[in-house]
Amino acid sequence: MKRIMITGSLGQIGSELALYLANIYGEENILVTDLAEKTLPDLANLAYKKLDVTDFAAFKQAAQDFAADTIMHLAAILSARGETMPQTTYKVNMNGLFNALEVARELHLQLFCPSSIGSFGPGTPMDNTPQDTLQRPETMYGVTKVSGELLCDYYYKRFGVDARGVRFPGLISWKTLPGQGTTDYAVHIYYAAIKEKSYTSYIKANTFMDMMYLPDALQAIVDLMEAPAEKLQHRNAFNVSAMSVDPEMIAASIRKFIPEFTLKYEVDPVRQQIAESWPNSLDVSAAKKEWNFKARYDLDKMTEDMLSNLRVKLG
Ligand code: NAD
Ligand code: AKB
């Protein structure tokens, strides 16, 4: 039985991952941590510890006190917010991951850390982006993500730390809003579809990025962490994705359920430039081959589920 400590648990992924893992491994085996004093009502049955991941001593103590055997390290600052505070982004993303790896090394824990399509840059092949390719990102977020991929590989090779990870695309979900990334429009558009039947996109039409519905991302985390080690040729930074979409494609999908939905544009140059430096579509064959990665939601299936959940949530 696993004992899993999650960092950055109150964000878009962690707030749902904690419950997902609790259903599989038992509520008593999940420790939720984040910067905030109080946790979310949905997570009330899980153990909670306030933790700043840049504080190594507190990080190690929390893992030791809980007798964790796994860390799922989600604490980070995302791409768009990162450009407003690059120094803090470096500190949280790099020092936080370094601490997570050191705790994992000292206490012999398994570690999950997600990278991102943000680890790629303008020189990367944009279509069917290979698993192993040029990575020269131009955001602080991207710099920390590609460095994190290398650091995780290093800790595995040098110290035998069982560090695993994926490169997530933009994740779409309805429970918790995204944390100021570049792909957030693909979540906000669904909220606006329910509330106003109209959305103004900060990303231009015809700008393609990979996306995936959160339930597929949660399943991918568990599948990768449970995969037999001998099957993994890569360990970290597996490309994963379910769809390559632009704002018009999402709008067309929404119109299948809300025919009067309209889409307008007011482009944000900062996020547009970041989006253009990221791949249009990823090659996910390594994840399929090495641990049977599979996404169950395509665009229309995800749209139907997003809209029906948001109708209830937003009244
Ligand atoms: P989020 O912004 O929604 O949540 C991040 C959480 O980290 C927040 O709850 C925040 O309070 C916490 N945090 C920030 N600084 C901290 C600190 N110093 N100590 C402890 N906690 C701190 O992010 P998310 O979308 O849940 O992303 C989680 C991970 O997944 C990140 O590494 C991110 O890069 C990666 N990822 C996310 C996406 C996506 O679309 N959501 C895509 C690719 C990769
Ligand atoms: C962001 O846009 O910053 C994130 C990501 C793809 O890493 N959603």
Automatic annotation (TrEMBL):
The NAD-dependent epimerase/dehydratase domain, residue ranges: 4-240
Xref: InterPro entries: Epimerase_deHydtase (IPR001509), NAD(P)-bd_dom_sf (IPR036291), NAD(P)_epim/dehydratase (IPR051225)
Protein name as annotated: NAD-dependent epimerase/dehydratase family protein
Sequence similarity: Belongs to the NAD(P)-dependent epimerase/dehydratase family.
